[in-house]
Structure formats: C-alpha cells, structure tokens
C-alpha cells in the first residue's frame, strides 16, 4: 500500500495496514520535509515526491487517501485510472454528485474501493444488525441518536476542516453525521428517504478572527423508506463529549441501543424489562463473533475496528467475500444525505434524498 496524507488518519491507516500484512511502499504528505519525517514514523519504505508519483508506482497495489476533503475526488479518480484499489477517507467528496460519479467510476474500473465507516466493525453493532435482520426487533418505528464532540468548542480551536475550501460546505454533518447515518442504515437495513434539518454556527470566529462559514451543530428529523421516523443531533461544540456516537432503534417487539464510547455493551429492551449484553464471543451471533477477536472482558475499541476494516478490504482485494464492507457506493450515499441536509437547512423545508 501507499498512503497519501501523513496526519492522524494516515497514521491509523498505516498501522492497520501493517497489522493486515501489507508492505507500506511509501507515503506522501503536504511537503517534502513532513513527508520524510512522517513517512519514517509510518514505517514507509519511501518518501514520494508527490501523490501522482506514488499513484504511478508499480509497487503500489492499494492507495489510501487521508488528505483534506477537497483532494479526495481528484486523487481517488487518478488512482482508479492507474488501476489501483482505493481506500478513501470520508466524506468521499464534498458534494453528492461527485461522490456518485466516483462510485460509478469504481465499478467501471473493476477495482475494490472502501470508505472507513469503521463503526460497522464493532462486534456489538454486528449483533444489533443481526437481531434487526432476524426479526427479533419487529417493525421499526423510531431510529434516533446523536454524535457529539467538543474538540472545536473554543474560539482558539481550529482545523482545516473549518475552511470550506478544504473541508467542503458541510463540516459537522459531513464529518461525523455521515458516520451516524451510515450506521443507522447499516443496522436498521432501512434508508433515510427525506430530511428536515437545522444547522448553526456557534463559534462565529476562530483563529486570526477568521469568520466561520461551516456548521458547528446540526439537528435532523428524517423519515425512512419503510416509514419509520427518526432524529439525530450532531455537534463538535458539546462540552465534555469526546466522541459519543449513540444509536437507538425502537421496534414493535424490542429496542436496541449502542453507545460507541461503551462499545463492549449493547442495550436490549422489551416491555417486560431490559438488559445489557456484554461482548462475549460465545454468546454472539456468528457474524458478530467473527469481529470479537479478544475474549470477553478484554476491551476492544477503535483501533480494533479499523484493523477489521482494513483486513476485510484486503481480503476482498484477494478475492474473498466480506459482508458489510463499506464501499464508494456507501460513501456516495452518505454524501447525498449530506446534500439533502444542507438543502433543507437552507430552505427550511423537507428535502428528499437523491436516490440516483
């Protein structure tokens, strides 16, 4: 593999690739000095002079794109044109039309593509998905939850994601709302059909008195294809919340709830009581137990999910089947939901999600 982008996510991708048995041929960052320093830390054999040079290398089979959002589309398309498999960070593109085109190009190229919606790889998420699919939850009437962070709470907090030229027209929903929506659709087996959204800028100026143009908070009502109702609240200015993704599903027979900050547990509720299920491979469905790589009581977390995601991606490249791998089609789906959220917030009306 070769990795483009040597920041936090580039480090996470490279670590998981090494554990999956990949050879890290090279890396490229935002400049030669940073590339050389970060490349060594990633365990890369070479520091490439440019992304194009890395993509063109005959030694690279898979390109991992971990750059600011505005570069995702051009780099992924170049990699596909070069015959490479591609793992691209989300959002896949800064608008749904481009992301949909990328998904189509991936199919035309016949290459394996993946987007790291890695929360799918928590064993207890797979258990929740199994229970919904088995009919144990019954007919779903309500899907709700939140994704809350506080890393942009203060005016002195800043990041390239705040800049719409690099991050795109949406920040909080494209960055973390996309994760929540993907997880909600993955677990429920249903799709968001229409949205009614509000967005707000809470911190109007950040470093150097630069005005903030992308949302700090987004709230969304939605309805699904099957007729279920839902709500989700997303924020990057929620004090004390570090990375709290909460998903709850209510059905005619039972309810399920998953909290990403307590990933060893799955809440299960019925009319006659509720209980917490612990991640115990011996008690899980086969699809969930496959991702429970440690014995019960030995906590698994984010790195384990990322390792499973990369491992499954490489297995599919080798010609094996892996159920639930998030592809460019899933990334395009998330981008179209985000487009609908922005359109609704801008007009104050319900907006249908493009099912192109």
TrEMBL record:
Domain GFO/IDH/MocA-like oxidoreductase: where? Answer: 125-256
Q: Keywords of this protein's UniProt record, alphabetized?
A: Oxidoreductase
Q: What SUPFAM superfamilies does the record tag this protein with?
A: Glyceraldehyde-3-phosphate dehydrogenase-like, C-terminal domain, NAD(P)-binding Rossmann-fold domains
Task: Using the record's annotation, list all stretches that form the Gfo/Idh/MocA-like oxidoreductase N-terminal domain.
Answer: 2-115
Q: Name one Pfam family in it.
A: GFO_IDH_MocA
Q: Which domain of life is it from?
A: Bacteria
* Protein name, entry field: Dehydrogenase
């Amino acid at each position: 593999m070769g990795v483009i982008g040597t920041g936090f996510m580039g480090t996470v991708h490279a670590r998981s690739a090494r554990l999956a048995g990949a050879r890290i041929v090279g890396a490229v960052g935002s400049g030669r000095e940073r590339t050389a320093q970060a490349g060594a830390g990633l365990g890369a054999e070479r520091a490439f002079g440019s992304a194009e040079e890395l993509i063109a290398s005959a030694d690279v089979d898979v390109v991992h794109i971990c750059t600011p959002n505005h570069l995702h589309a051009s780099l992924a398309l170049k990699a596909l044109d070069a015959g490479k498999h591609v793992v691209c960070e989300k959002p896949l593109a800064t608008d749904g039309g481009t992301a949909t085109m990328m998904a189509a190009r991936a199919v035309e190229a016949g290459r394996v593509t993946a987007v790291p919606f890695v929360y799918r790889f928590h064993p207890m998420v797979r258990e929740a998905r199994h229970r919904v699919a088995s009919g144990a939850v019954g007919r779903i009437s309500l899907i709700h939850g939140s994704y809350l962070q506080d890393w942009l709470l203060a005016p002195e907090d800043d990041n390239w994601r705040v800049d719409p030229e690099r991050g795109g027209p949406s920040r909080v929903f494209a960055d973390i709302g996309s994760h929540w929506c993907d997880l909600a659709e993955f677990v429920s087996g249903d799709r968001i059909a229409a949205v009614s959204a509000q967005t707000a800028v809470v911190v109007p100026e950040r470093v150097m008195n630069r005005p903030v143009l992308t949302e700090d908070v987004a709230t969304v009502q939605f309805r699904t294809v099957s007729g279920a109702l839902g709500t989700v609240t997303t924020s990057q200015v929620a004090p004390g919340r570090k990375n709290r993704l909460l998903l709850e599903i209510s059905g005619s027979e039972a309810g399920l709830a998953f909290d990403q900050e307590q990933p060893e547990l799955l809440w299960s509720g019925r009319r006659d009581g509720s209980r917490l299920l612990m991640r115990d491979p011996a008690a899980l469905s086969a699809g969930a137990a496959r991702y429970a790589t440690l014995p019960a009581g030995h906590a698994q977390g984010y790195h384990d999910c990322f390792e499973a995601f990369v491992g499954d991606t490489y297995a599919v490249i080798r010609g094996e089947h892996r159920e639930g791998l998030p592809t460019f089609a899933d990334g395009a789906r998330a981008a179209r939901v985000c487009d609908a959220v922005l359109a609704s917030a801008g007009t104050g009306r319900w907006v249908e999600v493009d099912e192109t």
